[in-house]
Amino acid sequence: MIATALILLLVLIGLSIPVGAALGVLGLTLDPLFSMLPLSRALGELSWSANNEFLLVAIPLFILLGEVLLRAGFAEKMYSSMSLWLSWLPGGLMHANIGASTLFSATSGSSVATAATVGTVALPQIKRYGYNEPLFLGSLAAGGTLGILIPPSINLVIYGVLTNSSVPKLYLAGIIPGFAMAALFMLTIIVACIVKPSWGGQKIHATWGERIRSLVHLGPPLAIFLLVVGSIYAGLATPTEAAALGVTGALILAAWFRKLTWTMLRESIEGTMRSTAMIMLIVIAAGFLNFVMSATGLTSAITDSITGLGFSPAWMLLVLVVFYLVLGCFMETLSMMITTIPIVAPIMIALGFDPIWLGIVIIILVEAALITPPVGLNLFVVQSLRKSGSMNSVIIGSLPFVAAMFVMLLLLALVPDLALWLPRVFG
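and the corresponding structure tokens:
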């Protein structure tokens, strides 16, 4: 049964069928093969229950927040400010890529949106200042991954829903690892540019007056971050209500800077609808597949086969890392999470791993999947922005940052409090 399900999944993905459709087709195929009852008749009820979750309303709201900030032009100004503050480091504007991605991810909650936004602004600087192209492209792809770790994160909301974990605690747990990851990315750039100084491009010189004046451009994203995250931890709003507050704040800022037009608003809503429809299709299809797997005993069979191996917690953690890295080569991140977490999380929690800590580890592994070929979404996003050149440059440039993610995973394994200290103190 396990082998049949796995082969069918690989065949469907290999046929380049959209992941949402592939998961749905797999569920509809496993139903008559292994169940005596017509499980497909529950699809309508399952679809309704999957959508009828208040916390999931945060997803389109966070997407809309990112769309408004992007189309209002805040990202470009934010990048300019970051370039003035960080360009003195070895690697120059590549640090601005990471810094701007960190700040934008703290408002958008989406990796793809972060990579696309910062990449659009940053790519012209490669030839202008003579940067090493692969490393520069890798910094954009890697910087984008921070969008699903630093709160507010759409993926952390999904994990919270799937494991019945506290989203505010997950948000707190993601703060220190998120900024530590950004620091590791910057350290990777510094080391690379010290070894190969020519990769760092031309220096951009700025006076302290210019830097201080540029701080005004960091105000809007910081204000949104404080509004969203602050309202949650002040006990004033749930994550969904905080997302609505963030959208309201972004619209007010856009109006204040005279960027709020009917065209901008229409494009933002259309972009939100497209992204939300894609996400919810995956959620519904994966929900039906999980139902079929549970009803046919497939979930129990997988769980029993894994626990029967008799691995220690440390070895199981290593298996988890390898599992997600391999799976990330074939599946899109969100669908990978929705499909696997209902199976993986109970096993790991039963072995004594904290569910909040586990959520951060899985998110980092999913981040790695975003920049590993052949299905790394951020790789495709950055390559699509280039409009020329080989994908190999983006892949090669992202590899040092994948290594930095492994360092972060090792640090989390050795010092779990990197993720658990803030939830314990403020949760």
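(Above: one complete record from the training split.) The chain is about 75% helix and 0% strand.
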